[in-house]
Amino acid sequence: MNSAKLSIVITSFNKGSYLAECLDSVIEGLNQGAEIIIVDDGSTDTSLEILRPYANCYPRLKYILQRNRGVSAARNQGIKAANGHYIIFLDADDRMDLEGLMHLYELCKKEDADTAIGSIIRFNEEELQETIPYLKRMFSMNNKQIIRHISKNPELNLSPSVCNKLFKRSLLLKHQIFFDESMMLGEDLLFSQRALYLSRNTLVKEIIVLHYRRFQDEITLSRVNETSLFDRLIVLQMKIKLLYEDLNVSHLLSTIELRQFKYFLNSIFEMKKPTIQRDPHHLFILTETFIQVLKFGMQMNELKLEEQLLVKIILNKDISSLEKLFIVMQDNKFETAYIAHEGAYYHPLYTYFQSYESILKIWKHKLIHRVEIVKQDDMKIYIGGYAFIHHIPADAYKRYLVIRNNEVQKRIPLTTALRTDVTFLHAENRVDYNEAGFETLEINVKDLGYGEWDFFIGVQMHDQWIESPVYIPLSQLRNSLKPVIANEFLISPKYKMGSFLCLEIQRVNKWTNIRQLINGFKKDFRYDISFLKKRDFHTFFSIALIKLLGRLLRGQRIWLIGERRDTAQDNSFHLFSYIRKYKKEINIYYVIDKRSKDYQKIKEFGNIIHFGSLKHTLYLLACTMTLNSYIESANMYTAAYKNILKYYPHWQKNKKVFLQHGVIGVSRVNHSLHKNRTGYSLFVTSSENERDHILSEFGYQDKEVVVTGLPRWDALEDVSQGNEILLMPTWRNWIKTGSQLKASNYFQTYMAFLKSKELHELLERRNLVMTFYPHYKVQQLLGDIPFIHERIRIVRQGQETVQQLLKSHRLLITDYSTVSYDFAYMNKQVLFYQFDYDEFFSRHYNKGIIEIESKQVCKNEAELINKIKESLENNVARYSIKNEHDISKKIILELSGL
């Protein structure tokens, strides 16, 4: 019998609900040289009824029935029945990514790898997906090394699952590698460890091969009330130790022991408090037993301080401190800033556990920095970004850029720049990093002299000096520095260990120019041709055409404008329509997906570019200006353009203009829109207060922020009939799934309001109509909302534009949305239903500088209904367009000065 390329061994026990979905994900593999073996472990549900039709349709699909003996026994049956060159395992409630799997197989075949590790994506019933953090760490370590071995690459210990791995069948049979059928926990880890050590090599590639189903109601450690888990972890650790002794690699035990010990400790943290209170002495015994099994001991210096504290409390048999630690950790009742005390710093837990001072004292500080700007202009290098000591407010130390070679060191003070976004991003406003930013520093290479110069960020904190090499991980930033000849200097950037900045400065001789031209050409050619080899013809031809036609295209002074790839409704649309009607001398093009619902509306203006087309990429490379209402890089760039900019960042020469899609101030959004992140040349605002806020906290210069208003306001006109109420709440980004949405206070509060009898009576008595426009995230997760009342209509995205809704309603009810400014611009009344104010600004957005007037704010349903009644009594003058296209004219005037 001819062997298959690979065997996909599926094990199932009462997984009938998911079995068909699992089989469908791999069944095409039968036509690609794979075999599928299903081992049913004594299912009592409908699994066999689902399985038999597949077996009848696909004769090469094997299935084995066994009495219920557990997943290890089922997998062992699969190994014995397998005929493939490689074997991979799959649980019946998960899905395989067949394309990724076959790609991994081809790489294994090419490299003759004994084992291989791919990536895993977790998903739930709402199909929301997330990567697994520990796998990201594993792939990021030695990421240029595709062939590794666990003995030399300990990061491979981070991947215990067998379902993201390929195992050469001959390896398993030669060494009799089977699953331990006595194990109730950790059977995957034991199997993987044995196979990885006995393999000659392991291929590691970040290719998604497994979609792992994460159940909403699955049992988590936080619900484990019995200590049997810890008994099993002890047994597992004993078996791991015996395995390493058997393989004669006991000297390598420290990595896996540390991983398992941290898992043991974190499992204690996730237990319920009553379990600990019931029998703390048993937990003490279990922990001591686990520690005794460890060959390399507790490795305390490798543990987090809260883990070290837990260990010390348990070894001291300190029951009261253990109970207190559970309360503090589970309720998160401590700040993240380190505590300064008598010239030293302590972990925040020091507040509660001062008797454990020696454990909680901080001996080693972590310097975090990010270089956001790196550019070069002849003899000058520019560097900008932020730097801070983790957990310590940024005003407690001085920062420097340090440049040194073997003989000389230059220490340059960094000038502080306000960065409230760093405080939000890195500490959720719990540690003050506002002074972490530093202004872009100019370095004259001529002042350095010849030699090789390494760059560092340094911090002086009291009598302690802390430094870190300047780290530039993004290839686009690294490639912003190119070898250049200037004033008889050859300035060559180098990146030690791939990302640490170093400059080599050499004398120029008569051959230097020629060598640089040849080396530059070779490097460019290798990069360009790599896309041809990868069959990425879009990127390859974009590079070739811009090199041939770039000067001609740039001479056409092209402007590109857009919003999200599939919309034409916001400020970009209104400015584009104005230019196409009244400023036809401007060579502007609108970028939109041709499948968009708004495509026909925008098409009548002409000059349309289809998103993702070759023309789109070429015009991005050749344009003199780009304009967008949303973040440009996320909504306007093609994949090819991003690839090109990684190597040719200097090709991006266009001015970038941000037109906005709201008003900034209710929330701080400088974590997304800071100058260092976006590079906008012009930032459009609506008021002097908003402009002052942008100038203060977003890193822009005075001339780069203008007050014009928003182009869409040119088209605002009150066309309401006087009896329409618009309910338009914004989103809560901590909600990730449909079940979370339905259970949330957010959703239930709005549903309760919409179903309120008092609201219905008010609508009927006053002949009112309420329009509910759910946020598009609600529409994605929930689908259709059922009928509520004949006077409440529900509008979905695409049925009406937001602006049409705003124009046609008399009263707006929102919570924190800045569409309120559009409504107020028409002199119409707005009510803010802010029942979750504290939660919103602690979990969703960083609170801004604008405070809404209290008379417009409602905290509960009764207040809201009363405010609606009051608002209906107020008669206001109807707003009509006064100065046609006034805002668009102002913006064009500002653009002409760029």
- Please name the CATH topology of the largest domain: Spore Coat Polysaccharide Biosynthesis Protein SpsA, Chain A
Number of DSSP helices?
A: 35
Mean pLDDT: 91
Large-scale geometry: globular
Low-confidence stretches: 216-225
Q: What's the total count of β strands?
A: 38
- Name the CATH architecture of the largest domain: Alpha-Beta Complex
What's the domain count? 5
Give the termini distance in whole angstroms: 73 Å
What is the top-level CATH class of the largest domain? Alpha Beta
Compute the gyration radius: what is it? Answer: 31 Å
Class inferred from helices and paired strands: alpha/beta
The fourth-level CATH homologous superfamily of the largest domain is Spore Coat Polysaccharide Biosynthesis Protein SpsA, Chain A
Helix content: 25-40%
Most strands sheet:
10 strands, mixed
Q: What percent strand?
A: 15-25%
If you had to describe this structure to a student in words, what would you say it looks like?
By secondary structure, this protein is an alpha/beta fold. The protein folds into five domains: 4-213, Spore Coat Polysaccharide Biosynthesis Protein SpsA, Chain A (Alpha-Beta Complex), CATH 3.90.550.10; 221-360, no CATH class; 367-508, Immunoglobulin-like (Sandwich); 537-712, 3-Layer(aba) Sandwich (Rossmann fold), CATH 3.40.50.11820; 718-873, Rossmann fold (3-Layer(aba) Sandwich). The strands form seven sheets. Strands 1, 2, 3, 4, 5, 6, 7, 8, 9 and 10 form a ten-stranded mixed beta sheet that branches. The relative contact order is 0.05.
